Amino acid sequence: MATPTLPTDVITCMLSLLPAKFVLICKSVCKLWYDLINSPKFVKLHLERSFVHFVIRTPSLHLADFDTFHNPVELDYPFKHPDHGGAHVVGSCRGLLCLWNFEHHLSVFLYNPTTRTHRILPSLALPFPYPKGHYKFGFGYDCFSEDYKCVRIYQALHEETGSFESQVMVYSLKTDSWRRAQDVPYYFYYHRGQSAFVDGAMHWIGSDRNRVVLPIVSFDLKEETFSSMPLPNFHDNDHVHMSVGVLDGCLCLMVNYFGLFG
After folding, report:
1. Residues 147/172, Cβ–Cβ less than 8 Å
2. Domain layout of the chain by residue ranges
3. What are 91-115's pLDDT values in tens digits?
4. Which of 57, 119, 144, 207 is at a distance of 20 to 30 A from 112, taking alpha carbons?
């Protein structure tokens, strides 16, 4: 007599209630469970029901529960390095991490910590011959096209003339390809810190070629166009470091003052 089995929908529902670290273990139970967990349907369902997690770099990347901070799980991602981790977090969205391998500047990849799967993005050549160039990255989800997108901004400053050139490229997970987007009107000399993805747009701290901090620069993923918003009033000085983030679904600005209180 054959052993009765549960319908796949019931199994999927049960597995989606488990924390990510137990989902990883369940992938080894059988081929059916492995295929269910790797399916787009399960990834979406688990994302909707999962608890909030955060990523720690120590120096390798770990995933931990946001509420307890207990038992962080070391992630097994590409280009992992025992000394310095081997990856910088570009952004996270809907359960996916976008990582940049800083040993090889053009190696950007998406990583799913639940299924331990990844995709290395197609490489891009440097567009300008100037040696002093830098990158800005952003990662988010376009709900209109139902597509994950990564933005790479490469800028190079011509020191003799003081002018700069930039190239904005947008990666689509659906097509697995890059395409050229509208040029950004600001020079990101103030390039420390990550982007923040809020309300369908990526946000960075902008500056001009004289290193003067300018309004927050945003890139709309649906229209693929840039815009800006003014900074809030704060005490400005030469020892300030700013970064943008997300707090309760809203864009927030963090301002750190160095050398003022000690």
Report:
1. yes
2. 1-50, 55-121
3. 888 778 888 886 655 688 898 887 7
4. 144
